[in-house]
């Protein structure tokens, strides 16, 4: 499913796809640390890879790294198009863009797109090319962490103080990446993915597993977890609270007809919100269970236990 699937699969791996009725979320490609950002299908977002579009519509400008670096230094937009034919398509990967890289310290360019060039960049403070003479007591920012982590999460610059006309070879006061604390809301490894959102570190952490909590007598707990979680036929999966949140399966109501998981039920018969969906009988192989989450397109097109989808 797209929920946390384009490159990082963050949320879906930690429990049933974490969304309320009708919600959606995703994580972006991880070409660089700066690119490990949440993808939004809002028309104004920088990168919409995998989001729905109409095949043949005009190409769009795109940028898959930190939006704060878009158009700064050497960073510039690429383009993504909507290939294919028919009624539904998805935006392609962003091509032709220039993403942040390591600051070279000597080429006169802002390579990491933070608005600071060469020796003015804290990441160059301990580079020999920038260890020039200085005035005692003069200070400058410094940072020795990996490229792309400065000012991300808890990572921050330190301060060097000139002594005996020379800059020190260390960086006092800096905070560089440490192991992710899955129970904390902070991004301690500085990869744009705090706590449970960091699949690479927290996929198996007990702190990141959704817990079942039923709110009504007629609701039940889902079977399984993640993308394999299911609900009894006629019910829809619901996630409540901040991630990882609580999960439950509840009977479809008229208020749920905007969710494809309920559009095959009699309570949604004739609902305008279900127009355009393709609905089929639940296969016997599903054993009376439907997918916990059936409102992602096109990712749910290959889910046999979703009775209604936007798939042709």
The sequence of SSEs as H and E is: EEEEEEHEEEEEEE
Side by side, the strands of the main sheet go 7-10-9
Separate helix tally? 1
Strand content: 5-15%
What profile does the largest beta sheet have? Answer: 3 strands, mixed
Q: Tell me roughly what share of residues is in helical segments.
A: under 10%
Chain-averaged pLDDT? 84
Distance between the termini: 17 Å
The whole-angstrom Rg is 24 Å
Shape from CA axes? elongated
The computed structural class is mainly beta
DSSP strand tally: 13
Low-confidence stretches: 1-36
Description of the structure:
- With 312 residues, the protein is mainly β.
- Among the domains are: 101-192, no CATH class; 208-309, no CATH class.
- Helix content is 1%, strand content 13%.
- The protein is built from 1 helix and 13 strands.
- It has one helix at 199-202; strands at residues 52-53, 60-62, 78-80, 89-90, 139-142, 158-161, 211-212, 230-232, 235-240, 246-251, 278-279, 289-291, 308-309.
- Strands 7-10-9 form a 3-stranded mixed β-sheet, with no helix packed on it. A two-stranded antiparallel ribbon has the order 1-4.
- Strand 9 (235-240) and strand 10 form a beta hairpin.
- The radius of gyration is 24 Å and the shape is elongated.
- Mean pLDDT is 84; it is low at 1-36.
């Amino acid at each position: 499913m797209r929920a946390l699937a384009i490159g990082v699969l963050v949320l879906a791996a930690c429990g049933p796809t974490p969304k309320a009725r009708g919600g959606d979320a995703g994580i972006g490609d991880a070409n660089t640390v700066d690119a490990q950002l949440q993808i939004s299908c809002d028309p104004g977002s920088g990168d919409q890879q995998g989001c729905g579009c109409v095949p043949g519509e005009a190409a769009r400008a795109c940028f898959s790294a930190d939006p704060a670096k878009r158009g700064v230094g050497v960073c510039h937009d690429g383009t993504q198009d909507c290939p294919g034919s028919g009624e539904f398509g998805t935006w392609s990967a962003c091509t032709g863009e220039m993403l942040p890289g390591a600051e070279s310290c000597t080429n006169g360019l802002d390579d990491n797109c933070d608005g600071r060039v060469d020796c003015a960049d804290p990441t160059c403070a301990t580079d020999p090319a920038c260890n020039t003479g200085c005035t005692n007591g003069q200070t400058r920012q410094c940072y020795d962490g990996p490229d792309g982590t400065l000012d991300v999460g808890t990572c921050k610059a330190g301060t060097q103080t000139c002594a005996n006309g020379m800059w020190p070879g260390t960086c006092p006061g800096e905070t560089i990446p440490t192991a992710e604390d899955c129970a904390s809301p902070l991004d301690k490894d500085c990869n744009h993915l705090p706590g449970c959102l960091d699949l690479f570190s927290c996929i198996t952490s007990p702190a990141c597993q959704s817990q079942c909590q039923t709110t009504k007598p007629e609701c039940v707990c889902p079977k399984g977890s993640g993308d394999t979680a299911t609900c009894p036929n006629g019910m829809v999966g619901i996630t409540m609270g901040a991630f990882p949140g609580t999960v439950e399966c509840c009977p479809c109501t008229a208020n749920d007809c905007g969710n494809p998981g309920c559009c095959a039920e009699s309570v949604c018969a004739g609902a305008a919100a279900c127009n355009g969906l393709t609905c089929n009988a639940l296969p016997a192989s599903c054993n009376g269970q439907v997918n916990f989450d059936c409102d992602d397109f096109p990712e749910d097109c290959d889910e046999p236990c979703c009775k209604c989808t936007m798939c042709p």
